[in-house]
């Protein structure tokens, strides 16, 4: 366990949502700590002036991806982060993982915390779950008001996506838990994550170590052939998920790492064509994890989208 992951775990707790124990961090502006993006900030200096922000992480990591920026995001708003079922510090049962399952968790979370008005920040797989939530909201099945949205690096257009060799390998396996003899460990996962970063990235090894450690917690690596099945759902239901991302009337802001080898920057161009009113910020020299690779620039872009 790294010091950073231990501190992250201590900030949250597990609550029952949609039949599963889900790890949740709920940051109030009055208790936010100064983050690396603003090391001179004063603890507890924030005042809640804006609607709460719900953050949805990606595959195969967890809410820990946002630990460098979470407190600065909470300078003037409540920020809620959670680990999807099968990820990070949440329960990791051996079951078929679906987008509906993760969306059900979010619906239960917003109800549990009394979040009736929110902004939404999504990354990677979180973009897909966010799309399902937006579709439900338009159908009257998620009773929240979405004030604004920020979307970042995710394969929202599968015909443009360049899946990695590791993703293709996992998708080629049966949808079942790996055996104890499977060739999967944190070093393998770290190598896969590192390959999605920009060649010019200066991310420290400790950052990936923390992400990998939480992904591996409670046998999480053995579930990767199950949790990755969202890609198959995305292919089947892209019209619903991406259609909602494109069409939902809430203001949209796009913050994207330009050097992402999987969710390539051409996706920004296509989304921008569908939403010419959207704000667009492409971060040069940044890959798939902009909140880790360039937290200061990512934070600034997200804040412009939220404000």
Please give a structural write-up:
With 307 residues, the chain is of the alpha/beta class. The chain has a single domain, classed as 3-Layer(aba) Sandwich (Rossmann fold), CATH 3.40.50. The chain is 38% helix and 15% strand. The protein has 13 helices and eight strands. The chain has helices at residues 3-11, 70-73, 99-113, 125-138, 165-172, 186-194, 205-216, 224-227, 230-236, 238-247, 266-274, 290-293, 295-306; strands spanning 13-17, 20-27, 53-56, 79-82, 117-123, 145-152, 252-257, 279-283. The chain has an eight-stranded mixed sheet with strand order 1-2-4-3-5-6-7-8, with helices on both faces. α2 (70-73) links the parallel β3 (53-56) and β4 (79-82). α3 (99-113) packs across α4 (125-138), α4 (125-138) crosses α10 (238-247) and α6 (186-194) crosses α7. The radius of gyration is 18 Å and the shape is globular. 47% of the residues are buried. Residues 35-44 have low confidence and may be disordered.
Overall radius of gyration: 18 Å
As a percent range, the share of helical residues equals: 25-40%
Q: How many beta strands in the DSSP annotation?
A: 8
The CA-CA distance between the termini, in Å, is 36 Å
């Amino acid at each position: 366990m790294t010091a950073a992951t231990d501190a992250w775990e201590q900030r949250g707790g597990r609550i029952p949502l949609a039949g599963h124990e889900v790890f949740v961090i709920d940051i109030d502006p009055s208790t936010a700590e100064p983050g690396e993006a603003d090391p001179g900030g004063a603890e507890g200096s924030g005042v809640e002036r804006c609607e709460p922000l719900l953050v949805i992480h990606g595959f195969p990591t967890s809410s820990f991806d946002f630990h460098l920026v979470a407190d600065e995001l909470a300078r003037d708003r409540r920020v809620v982060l959670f680990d999807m079922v099968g990820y990070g510090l949440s329960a990791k049962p051996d079951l078929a993982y679906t987008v509906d399952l993760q969306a059900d968790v979010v619906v239960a979370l917003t109800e549990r915390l009394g979040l009736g008005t929110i902004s939404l920040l999504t990354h990677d797989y979180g973009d897909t779950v966010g799309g399902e939530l937006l579709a439900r909201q338009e159908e009257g099945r998620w009773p929240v008001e979405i004030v604004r949205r920020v979307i970042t690096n995710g394969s929202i257009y599968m015909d443009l996506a360049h899946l990695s060799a590791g993703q293709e390998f996992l998708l080629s396996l049966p949808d079942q838990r790996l055996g104890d003899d499977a060739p999967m460990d944190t070093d393998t996962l770290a190598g896969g994550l590192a390959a999605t970063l920009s060649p010019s990235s200066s991310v420290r090894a400790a950052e990936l170590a923390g992400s990998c450690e939480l992904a591996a917690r409670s046998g999480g690596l053995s579930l990767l052939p199950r949790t990755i099945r969202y890609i198959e759902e995305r292919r089947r239901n892209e019209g619903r998920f991406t259609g909602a991302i494109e069409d939902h009337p809430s203001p949209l802001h796009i913050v994207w790492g330009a050097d992402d080898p999987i969710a390539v920057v051409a996706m920004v161009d296509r989304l921008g064509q569908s939403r010419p009113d959207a704000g667009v910020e492409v971060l040069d020299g940044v890959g798939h994890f902009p909140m880790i690779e360039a937290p200061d620039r990512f934070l600034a872009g997200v804040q412009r989208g939220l404000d």
